[in-house]
Backbone:
């Protein structure tokens, strides 16, 4: 029997304005208990590029950078079964309590979805429970896994920059 894997605790400061939702951390991230720990994932490079800053190598500094810029980080999936790290392998998912998070942090003005799976899970469970003042922004995945719609890092940075208007 396959065991459930669980997402990591949310990263959020008291004045968060944008919530970035991934789907479920990959094996490397879960093992290290660090969001986007796979060095091939473009997440941290993209986030730092949005503010014209070099990426800090220390994870705790990355987390402080997010909080300083009023960005929260979590996952749409609370737990699931999955072999490997691919979103396409996620089965039996149970969602995180996103409506509860939004109620606890009314300063959040936008949810940026890191890839299609994060958005699809959110839509399946919470489509009708989004406050009207919260924008939903579907972003291209930062994953190192090739997708059907490849984009350069520069193109991804351009698309991800739209979340800055909510900060």
Residues:
């Amino acid at each position: 029997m396959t065991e459930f894997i669980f997402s990591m605790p949310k990263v959020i400061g008291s004045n968060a304005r944008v919530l970035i939702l991934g789907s479920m951390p990959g094996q490397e991230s879960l093992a290290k208990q660090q969001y986007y720990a796979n060095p091939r994932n473009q997440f941290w490079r993209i986030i730092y590029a949005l503010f014209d800053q070099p990426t800090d190598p220390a994870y705790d500094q990355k987390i402080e950078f997010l909080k300083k810029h009023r960005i929260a980080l979590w996952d749409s999936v609370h737990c699931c079964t999955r072999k490997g790290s691919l979103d396409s392998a996620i089965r039996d998912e149970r969602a995180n309590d996103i409506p509860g998070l939004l109620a606890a942090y009314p300063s959040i003005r936008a949810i940026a979805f890191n890839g299609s799976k994060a958005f699809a899970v959110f839509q399946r469970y919470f489509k009708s429970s989004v406050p009207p003042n919260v924008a939903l922004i579907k972003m291209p995945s930062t994953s190192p896994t090739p997708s059907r719609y490849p984009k350069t890092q520069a193109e991804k940075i351009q698309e991800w920059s739209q979340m800055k208007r909510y900060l």
The chain has a mean pLDDT of 91. The first strand starts at residue 5 and ends at 6. Helices lie at 27-32, 43-50, 59-68, 98-104, 116-126, 153-160. Residues 113 and 138 are 5 Å apart (CA to CA).
